[in-house]
Design brief:
Chromate efflux transporter; 445 residues; two-stranded antiparallel ribbon; transmembrane; membrane; mainly alpha
Length: 445
């Protein structure tokens, strides 16, 4: 495959990656498997299965994997970078606009519509992932237990994910029928794909290659973080954000939705980088830009660094925090693919590899549901208190502070997504217009 041709294709794909991982994967499926005939369907599915096991945004990792299949390491670097670059630039600009004009009536109105729409979008994510993943009562139970562990007992997110992986392994060992899935045959028609399902990638795994890539990746990942710590101090907001988001990059199983409740809890409660409602607004912005939804962490870092610049100009601090967070979030994605892909290519057809994924993916349904509960409470009610009752940690909304406008727009968004089956981008645009109209009418009244 000519590298320039691949670059043009990845550039075109990068501007179509709206609608979350499902939409992003569909774009690559259509472009690479159906239109270009560059890769076979089963080969594409195998790469996707591996990316689903990894922490991080599976769609971007799938781009890296397929780019690597087509053009080696430089192909993976180009595909993964182009996949996130438009979103990085767009969300950086939107974050700056939010800081500069977030208090104006127009921006307030837009977010008054976006936040309720996000509640509906997360509800759709629960439905989509659950319908695909919960194929056995045991997996449904695992999803429910994960939701309870997070929503009622406030157990740490990494612990829930680790327990889910262990549960998946046990299910595969003692209840293998819970993992049964109908597997379709390769339905490729027309010319044979450039990379067929039976072909073997030329780059073989090896110890020397593994050490070289691991060392290079860790250096690239860690050097900016070490430099920031030396220049601004270990207690600066930049070092704190770099360390925190480096950690979340290692536990982001199931995509952005799965880890955002944990990020929101830490960013709002522990570090005070932003308010609960602002987390919902950030996700709304990330939904309207191309690229992975985990890009919302850039918005979180931008606001946190702007409000605690540590002696720097607030705008310079905000950009530094946002870019550092983006770097430590996405560099591991390249590392995981370049390290593991050659081994995974030699293990195609090994069913045991996906055992842990089944348990984690089932738990992700509960994790996303917990995120939806968090967003719904802080969107629909002006006052939400957290309380404890024995081992339980419960959030109690003040029913007298319900927001009727937010409730109405949420209902409208649910109708658009589930009944009318409108796209996420269209739903967000209409809800933003509804919020702007509501604020305008209120101001004129």
């Amino acid at each position: 495959m000519p590298f320039r041709t691949a670059l043009r294709t990845w550039f075109a794909i990068s501007w179509q990656t709206f609608g979350g991982p499902a939409g992003q994967i569909a774009v690559m499926q259509r472009a690479l498997v159906e239109d270009k005939r560059w890769i076979g369907q089963q080969r594409f599915n195998h790469a996707l299965s591996y990316c689903m096991v990894l922490p991080g945004p599976e769609a971007q990792q799938l781009a890296i994997y397929t780019g690597w299949l087509l053009n080696g390491t430089r192909g993976g670097l180009a595909a993964g970078t182009l996949f996130v670059l438009p979103g990085v630039l767009a969300l950086l600009a939107l974050s700056a606009l939010y800081v500069a004009f977030g208090g104006t009536a127009a921006v307030t109105g837009l977010f008054a519509g976006l936040a309720p729409a996000v509640v509906a979008v997360v509800a759709q994510a629960v439905w989509r992932v659950g319908r695909r993943s919960l194929t056995h009562p045991a997996l449904v139970s695992l999803a429910v237990l994960s939701f309870i562990a997070l929503a009622l007992f406030a157990l740490p997110f990494p612990l829930v994910i680790a327990a889910a992986g262990l549960a998946g392994w046990l299910l595969a060992r003692y209840r293998p029928h819970a993992f049964h899935r109908s597997v379709g045959h390769d339905a490729d028609r027309g010319p044979a794909p450039l990379i067929s399902d039976a072909s073997l990638h030329a780059e073989a795994p090896g110890g020397r290659r593994f050490v070289r890539i691991l060392g290079t990746g860790l250096l690239l990942w860690g050097i900016p973080l070490v430099a920031v710590a030396l220049l601004t101090g270990t207690g600066s907001v930049f070092t704190t954000q770099g360390v925190f988001f480096s950690g979340t990059a290692l536990v982001t199983f199931g995509g952005a939705y799965a880890v955002l409740a944990y990020v929101a809890q830490q960013a709002v409660t522990t570090y005070g980088w932003l308010a609960p409602g602002e987390m919902v607004r950030g996700l709304g912005l990330a939904e309207t830009t191309p690229g992975p939804l985990i890009m919302v962490v850039q918005f979180v870092a931008f606001l946190g660094a702007y409000r605690d610049p540590g002696g720097l100009d607030p705008w310079a601090a905000a950009v530094l925090g946002a870019l550092l967070t983006t770097w430590v979030t996405f560099v591991p994605c390249f590392l995981f693919i370049f390290l593991g892909a050659p081994y995974i290519e030699r293990l195609r057809g090994n069913r045991s590899i996906s055992a842990g994924l089944t348990g984690i993916t089932a738990a992700v349904v509960g994790v996303i549901a917990n995120l939806g509960l968090y967003f719904a409470l802080h969107t629909l009610f002006a006052d939400v208190d957290a309380g404890t009752w024995g081992p339980l940690h419960i959030q109690f909304p003040d029913l007298t502070t319900i927001r009727p406008t937010a409730l109405a727009i949420t209902a409208a968004a649910l109708l658009m997504i589930f009944k009318l089956r409108w796209s996420v981008l269209r739903t967000l645009g209409i809800c933003a217009a509804l919020g702007l109209a509501t604020v305008t009418v209120t101001a004129l009244a």
